[in-house]
């Protein structure tokens, strides 16, 4: 069983990508909606939340952990791997690899929460793999609340996205990493504001491909794909009808949310 956690609803875009690539595997999702957003929290707090989320998923039967949150991915994977003996995947590294493969000029933009951008995790990984690349980052703190509210196509949302993307566009980026798994819900607007020549990198979809490659390379995991026994399960730390509505829109299916206390 594959466990995925996020600060809220955004990680469901990662869950959707995993379900498309690994339809035979059971998924268990935890959205920490009571404590969202993570981007404004301290490093220590995000690590603590991530360890708590991982413990819950493992107790519920997860045998693999996908950190479907960029903020948590930027600070917590090492602590998770030290604490738990299960495969752990994060969204940053596969997104960087895909961006570098796509970028012709090495002009790469990154948008994310304040926590992700402040950590400089994307800039560091990109420079490690391609020292001559130029990385232009911009925090976008208002985008997660907009997604959580379901404001996917409001005029206000378009204006806010434009203000965040403009500084990167004038830098003539050719590739843009969506450094938050909430952002694919706004991808059509982001693509429009970034320009037709800019390749958009979805970090959730990138990690799903990495997990698929891992499963394909390990027979013991590949065999699990044919032993699906139950339905996917979805847990949240705070329930709202809005979350359920957006979740069903993302996954294109009925979703039964179960409330748990963290």
From TrEMBL:
<feature type="active site" description="Proton donor/acceptor">
    <location>
        <position position="180"/>
    </location>
</feature>
<dbReference type="InterPro" id="IPR004391">
    <property type="entry name" value="Glu_race"/>
</dbReference>
<feature type="binding site">
    <location>
        <begin position="181"/>
        <end position="182"/>
    </location>
    <ligand>
        <name>substrate</name>
    </ligand>
</feature>
<dbReference type="InterPro" id="IPR018187">
    <property type="entry name" value="Asp/Glu_racemase_AS_1"/>
</dbReference>
<comment type="pathway">
    <text>Cell wall biogenesis; peptidoglycan biosynthesis.</text>
</comment>
<dbReference type="GO" id="GO:0071555">
    <property type="term" value="P:cell wall organization"/>
</dbReference>
<dbReference type="GO" id="GO:0008881">
    <property type="term" value="F:glutamate racemase activity"/>
</dbReference>
<protein>
    <recommendedName>
        <fullName>Glutamate racemase</fullName>
        <ecNumber>5.1.1.3</ecNumber>
    </recommendedName>
</protein>
<feature type="binding site">
    <location>
        <begin position="6"/>
        <end position="7"/>
    </location>
    <ligand>
        <name>substrate</name>
    </ligand>
</feature>
<keyword id="KW-0413">Isomerase</keyword>
<dbReference type="InterPro" id="IPR001920">
    <property type="entry name" value="Asp/Glu_race"/>
</dbReference>
<keyword id="KW-0573">Peptidoglycan synthesis</keyword>
<dbReference type="InterPro" id="IPR015942">
    <property type="entry name" value="Asp/Glu/hydantoin_racemase"/>
</dbReference>
<dbReference type="GO" id="GO:0008360">
    <property type="term" value="P:regulation of cell shape"/>
</dbReference>
<keyword id="KW-0961">Cell wall biogenesis/degradation</keyword>
<feature type="binding site">
    <location>
        <begin position="38"/>
        <end position="39"/>
    </location>
    <ligand>
        <name>substrate</name>
    </ligand>
</feature>
<comment type="function">
    <text>Provides the (R)-glutamate required for cell wall biosynthesis.</text>
</comment>
<dbReference type="GO" id="GO:0009252">
    <property type="term" value="P:peptidoglycan biosynthetic process"/>
</dbReference>
<keyword id="KW-0133">Cell shape</keyword>
<feature type="active site" description="Proton donor/acceptor">
    <location>
        <position position="69"/>
    </location>
</feature>
<comment type="similarity">
    <text>Belongs to the aspartate/glutamate racemases family.</text>
</comment>
<dbReference type="Pfam" id="PF01177">
    <property type="entry name" value="Asp_Glu_race"/>
</dbReference>
<dbReference type="InterPro" id="IPR033134">
    <property type="entry name" value="Asp/Glu_racemase_AS_2"/>
</dbReference>
<feature type="binding site">
    <location>
        <begin position="70"/>
        <end position="71"/>
    </location>
    <ligand>
        <name>substrate</name>
    </ligand>
</feature>
């Amino acid at each position: 069983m594959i466990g995925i956690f996020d600060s809220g609803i955004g990680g469901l875009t990662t869950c959707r990508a995993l379900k498309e690539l690994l339809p035979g595997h059971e998924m268990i999702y935890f959205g920490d909606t009571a404590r969202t957003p993570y981007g404004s929290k301290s490093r220590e707090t995000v690590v603590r939340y991530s360890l708590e989320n991982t413990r819950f998923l493992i107790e519920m039967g997860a045998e693999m952990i996908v950190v479907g949150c960029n903020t948590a991915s930027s600070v917590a994977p090492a602590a998770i791997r030290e604490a738990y003996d299960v495969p752990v995947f994060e969204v940053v590294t596969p997104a960087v690899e895909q961006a570098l493969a796509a970028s012709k000029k090495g002009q790469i933009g990154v948008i994310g929460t304040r926590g992700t951008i402040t950590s400089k995790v994307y800039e560091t990984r990109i420079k490690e793999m391609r020292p001559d690349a130029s990385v232009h980052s911009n925090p976008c703190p208002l985008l997660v609340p907009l997604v959580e509210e379901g404001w996917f196509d409001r005029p206000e949302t378009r204006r806010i996205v434009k203000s965040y993307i403009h500084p990167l566009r004038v830098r003539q980026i050719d590739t843009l990493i969506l450094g938050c798994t909430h952002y694919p819900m706004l991808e059509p607007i982001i693509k429009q504001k970034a320009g037709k020549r800019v390749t958009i990198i979805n970090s959730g979809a990138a990690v799903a491909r990495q997990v698929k490659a891992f499963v394909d390379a390990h027979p013991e995991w590949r065999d699990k794909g044919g032993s699906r026994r139950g339905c996917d399960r979805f847990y949240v730390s705070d329930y709202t009808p809005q979350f359920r509505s957006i979740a069903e829109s993302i996954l294109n299916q009925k979703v039964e949310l179960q409330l748990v206390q963290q």
